[in-house]
Amino acid sequence: MAHPNINNKTPYHFEPLFLQDEELRPQFVGLVKAAFRIQPSEIGPVIPMKEQIPAVLAGEPYGDPEKSSYKYEPECTPYKLNTDIVLIGSAKAPNENMTQFDCGFRVGEYTQIARIFGDRVWTKNVIGMSMSEPEVVSEMPLTFENAFGGVDTSVELKHGHPFEQKNPVGKGYHKNSKNCIPLSPLPNIEDPNNLITHYTYCPEPVGFGFISPHWHPRSLLAGTYDEKWEKDRSPKLPIDFNPLFFNGATQNLMADGYLLGNEPVQVYNASVWPKLTFYLPDIAAPSINIKLKNGTSFILNTVLDTVIVNTDDMLLFLHYRTRVKLKNGPHDVADIEVNAADINKMELV
Fold first, then answer.
1. Using an 8 Å Cβ cutoff, are 16 and 28 in contact?
2. pLDDT digit string (tens) for 17-62?
3. What is the pLDDT of residues 107-132, one digit of tens each?
């Protein structure tokens, strides 16, 4: 099978994906991944990278794929209904010898705030379980591993230990207080407006990254896989599949629709500077011109469906995506041309 001719006229990485939709019909998905260097100053700007970074199709977990959260989730999703906004980085104390401090992240009108604590444990005394005083903290990775969640190994159920379904890789979850675990850790990342008050308290996990597909509430959008589905529908997606499943950002950082670019970005106590401020690049979404072997051609407009700010590596990623159904499959496509609007003459770095 001959591959389509690809002419990428943008300075960004282009990934052609040939997938199947909910009804197993073939479709073309075009992903334009734009990588920018966040400049070493408290106030931007961001500059396109000369060496663009390929799509992470398989995803990149922080550790063991079975036991850790995603740093970069698989970038081969067919589409998203809203823009996912994600921060990869570490909270950094603004002063020395601090045991707790707040950090925050904002893109446009979408904001996530967290309180960072030094390491703490539960201690047992005559009145029950008490929190130890937090240790001094200078830096804390903003991962779900450090947020509320985890597994309660003190309780054994029919199918194993109970766990926090919204964040099974976190710390601090306890099913009940009958079998308390002295010296068990508390989370380092909490909601400043809903702090843990007692041993079995279950607050909403605070995260800045991607929610894994098998965690709540994302997994609840995947549909019902029961005997009826097995008999009447498999291997197609269930009738009640909700395409919001394809979005992986936390609730506070999932846009209502799509961002357009030029939105202000603020990172507070989560970069090398106490306050990092810049704007998303003010560029028009790339377009993709498809020519089929039967002579038909059409233009697909992309949407900005993912924004990733990485303050560990001082990188910004923008994902632009589009899709179209195909009659037969990849061999329908003869030529693909990717076009970008003016990038405001930004210098490549």
1. yes
2. 999 999 999 999 999 999 999 987 766 689 999 999 999 999 999 9
3. 999 999 999 999 999 998 877 889 99
Nearest to 192 by CA among 181, 204, 176: 204
What span, in angstroms and rounded, lies between the C-alpha atoms of 298 and 94? 52
End-to-end CA distance of the chain: give it in Å, rounded: 38
Identity at 128, one-letter amino acid code: G
The answer to whether the beta carbons of residues 91 and 103 sit under 8 Å apart is yes
**pTM score of the predicted model:** 0.94
- Give the span between the Cα atoms of 157 and 151, in whole angstroms: 12
Task: List CB contacts of 143: < 8 A, sequence separation 6 or more.
Answer: 62, 69, 209
Q: Which amino acid is at 181?
A: I
Half-sphere exposure of 34 (CA within 13 A, CB side): 31
Which H, E and C letters describe 284-320, residue by residue? Answer: CCCEEEEEECCCCEEEEECEEEEEEEECCCCEEEEEE
| Cα–Cα distance list, 147 to 70, 83, 143, 144, 218 (Å) | 14, 23, 7, 5, 17
Token pair belonging to 158: 């029919």
Distance (Å, whole) CA 192 – CA 211:
20
The Cα–Cα gap between 268 and 276 comes to 7
d(CA 21, CA 319): 20
- Measured at the CA of 209, the angle between CA 203 and CA 211, to 5 degrees, comes to 70
Position 132, amino acid: S
